[in-house]
Amino acid sequence: MKKEDDVILEVEGLKKYFPIQQGVFKRVVGHIKAVDNISFFIKEGETLGLVGESGCGKSTTGRCVNRLFEPTAGKINFKTNSHFVDIAAAGKRQLNEIRKNIQIIFQDPHSSLDPRLTVRNIIAEPLKLYNIGSKAERTAKVEDLLEKVGLNSYQMNRYPHEFSGGQRQRIGLARALSLNPKLIICDEPVSALDVSVQAQVLNLFEDLQEELDLTYLFIAHNLSVIDHISDRVMVMYLGKIVEIADSDSIYQEPSHPYTEALLGAIPEGDPRKTKKRAPLPGDVGDPSDPPPGCNLAPRCPYAKDRCSQEEPELKEIPGKKDHYVSCLFADELELTGYTQLIEKD
Description:
By secondary structure, the chain is of the alpha/beta class. The chain has a single domain, classed as P-loop containing nucleotide triphosphate hydrolases (Rossmann fold), CATH 3.40.50.300. The protein is built from 10 helices and 14 strands. It has an 8-stranded mixed β-sheet with strand order 6-7-8-3-9-10-13-12, with helices on both faces. The chain is globular. The chain starts with 6 loop residues before the first strand and ends with a strand. The mean pLDDT is 90.
């Protein structure tokens, strides 16, 4: 993947292995390959959706990007002041400056907010940490941010337990916006919310992106949510990226068998329609001992002998700009898109 003028983040060969320790002396006997040699890029002002089953490495990827987790290997090139800096190799002082431009919103809005602090102090904390503004200026900034996320300034003296889940997530978003970041990592920010509240929060994300020229890495396991908010979608399976393309191509013209299986798992809300489903057999592989060759080979209905012997590379499909797939037989398969999976009674 080559850097383009509008790319703000480029990840190359990212790995994150967690050691497996045994015995009194904590001897390392293996590694959990949570993220295993992935590469991707994000363009300025876009939303890149990252989707996959629970445990596939989505959240670990997001936390490696701003080094909440230390990467095992790879480069994380982030554009700052018109040039790229490798976050993975940055020193502590440089990393602190970079993190002003990369913020994260966590999945659980309850546990991610300090219950001992008022909303005013929660949102102003990053400003205080970086010595930005006086106390009065920080308070004014908090008032402005609360209005931006759909809350009232008079609520700033309340505590997190006095708010609903959707309101707490808005507070988390306000905190993330306090330092005027360029990139926000959204780690399943609506999965813990009711469906009606999800829609409100997603619309807020879109409005703020347009108003503040934000870039999102949006992590979720709900493909309907990803389809709604994402410009491009990245599909992950067992620590590896298997397909990247724009949202329409992923949903209507998938090129990887796992993407097709995920589309078949989307619930259909119209009772007058039925849906073709072809669930993958077996269980997800063990990330501490992944299968040889293609990770999906033991479960893939299209697998051939070569699939269990040769690991596919993530390559751009000829004639389809920015559509990448990791499948040895992507050119030969005729996969079914979401629309074709639905049949009217």
